[in-house]
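stuck on this fold:
=====
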Amino acid sequence: MRLTAGQASVKASSDRTKYDSLEVGHALCDDILNQIWICIDKHKPIIDEREFCVVMVIASDPLIHNVMRRKFYAWPYLPSPRPNQSVFLYRKGSDDIQRLWVLPEANAMAVLSTMGFVAPRYRTMQAWSNAFFNGEFWEYIRKEHQIFMLSESEYLDANREKLIKSGCKQSDSLPAEPFDFSKIRTDKVVNTLVPVLH
């Protein structure tokens, strides 16, 4: 019987074994390539472009504090960069993948970006972090990999007519209305600790 995420979390939190962090890191990466190919196979018939991006995001679970989830998805454009994200470019013609960027957690990005010197293995990640904070991420990635792929907003603008014809509707969202605090009256507020006798 397979453990649920909650059961695995309880078991992991009670484990007092000392683990080598390098071994743990390698174990976490063992099946990433396999998962990328699964994502590619699912999206090849769906995305009608010669190349597309496969994205892996590491997310924490809001209910189980020591659980990390890896989520894989694909876009026909360069996704917006964010912390804990890895992005790969898949080309249908050559059936190969290329790593575009890997961004660490937000604190690590900030530290890398402010450091004057980093170990050689972190220089590429530092350059990505700098480009992220300097607001020139797309330009840097395109130049680094000699690609011309569009970002999400550029892709949607370039394909607007085609998307509208296919049934996608452009919707202009309305601004949210701020809450009107003048509608609250003190006689309408109920204190749950005071019994209501009427």
User: Anything to note?
Assistant: The chain has a mean pLDDT of 83. Residues 130 and 136 are 9 Å apart (CA to CA). Strands lie at 51-60, 68-75, 85-91, 96-103.
